[in-house]
Design goal:
Distance between the termini: 10 Å
Number of strands: 18
Low-confidence stretches: none
Shape: globular
Strand content: 25-35%
Oligomer: single chain
Structural class: alpha/beta
Largest sheet: 9 strands, mixed
């Protein structure tokens, strides 16, 4: 059984290496998991683009300026010295782009956690692993559960402000932006998506946005009570939105960095201060107010409804490390189609 990792240069996401690894002997409390499937999206590029600032490189550390970009998916315990994690246990959670991973799995209130020392100070949301018996919707869950959860929490966060009547979303072809658009329009908000000219026509036909505007026409966007939600992380796009909307821009929210090659040098711009949205903070807030079970029930109901509406979504299956590298470059270069979801099977 071969073991390998995909390593990415932390200072250049375009430098990627596939490295064979040796399976180290487990110590007491550890379990070895075989990665069975995971989704690859623009969200994973964001993890790399802001990995140093937000600690994403710390989950699966590497040496010498290299890192492992986290993904979401399913893995199965194939060897165990962890009392709570028997061989055959299937889990859903935060994984490396690898054939295998080692975790110190401990049973928690809602599933399992990785109690490895290097993860102790990292957000609990990313250290949690849910028991996940096989289901026909596993591919959809791998693709949509983490992204759509962020969409769900963003919409909940924005719904607290009754003055917001219009959303403008950058990187409108990202699945998280598409999910937010779906939520917001159900609440009666107008939603405008910003995207590349090459994707505007396709994105317009999906029925998720009231209008889709190419980036070069950002200055033409109009609206009142506008919240700008930035998934791209491109200061030029953000500046154009702030300049163009002026006093009509009520809020400006930072979420992602899909435009990873953009010059991120801060630049002064008019309008409201930019506010960072961090999904784990909103999860903690709602879990405390609603209870974890109620939060999960609300989310799963919304996810099922979205899947029922998303007849436009096609799952693209990719198998093996070489195909994974090709898919990574496709997503990194922005060539992945908005109406496709890439599912990787490492073996």
């Amino acid at each position: 059984m071969s073991h390998w990792d995909v390593l990415v240069a932390r200072n250049d996401l375009g430098r990627v290496e596939l490295r064979d690894t040796a399976a180290k002997a487990l110590v007491e409390g550890e379990a070895r998991l075989e990665v069975e499937r995971f989704a690859l999206t623009a969200n994973n590029i964001t993890y790399g683009a802001i990995g140093d600032a937000f600690g994403y490189w710390k989950f699966f550390p590497a040496e010498g300026g290299w890192g492992q970009i986290p993904v979401w998916g399913f893995a199965r315990v194939v060897e165990s010295r962890a009392p709570d994690a028997p061989v055959g246990l299937q889990l859903f959670g935060y994984l490396p782009m690898s054939s295998h991973m080692t975790a110190r799995l401990v049973k928690g209130r809602g599933g399992y956690i990785d109690a490895a020392a290097h993860r102790a100070e990292l957000p609990p949301t990313y250290n949690a692993y849910a028991q996940a018996p096989e289901d026909d919707l596993d591919d959809h869950r791998a693709l949509l559960r983490p992204l759509f959860m962020t969409s769900f929490l963003l919409d909940d966060f924005l719904a607290e402000d009754a003055s917001v009547r219009t959303l403008v979303l950058s990187s409108a072809s990202s699945k998280t932006a598409m999910g937010l658009a779906w939520f917001a329009r159900r609440r009666g908000l107008k939603v405008i998506g910003l995207t590349s000219a090459s994707r505007a026509e396709l994105l317009s036909g999906l029925g998720l946005y009231d209008a889709v505007v190419p980036y070069e026409r950002t200055a033409s966007v109009i609206g009142s009570g506008v919240a700008y939600v930035d998934f791209a992380g491109d200061p030029k796009v953000t500046g154009a939105v702030h300049e163009g909307l002026g006093a009509d821009l009520a809020r400006s929210i930072i979420v992602g960095g899909t435009h990873w090659q953009a010059d991120r040098t801060p630049q002064p711009m008019p309008g409201p201060d930019r506010v960072l949205f961090f999904a784990p903070d909103q999860i903690r807030k709602r879990a405390a107010e609603w209870g974890p079970e109620a939060l999960d029930q609300k989310f799963m109901g919304a996810l099922r409804a979205f899947c029922a509406d998303a007849s436009w979504l096609t799952l693209k299956q990719v198998a093996g490390p070489d195909a994974l590298l090709a898919a990574y470059r496709e997503v990194l270069d922005g060539r992945a189609s908005p109406d496709e979801g890439i599912i990787i099977r490492p073996a």
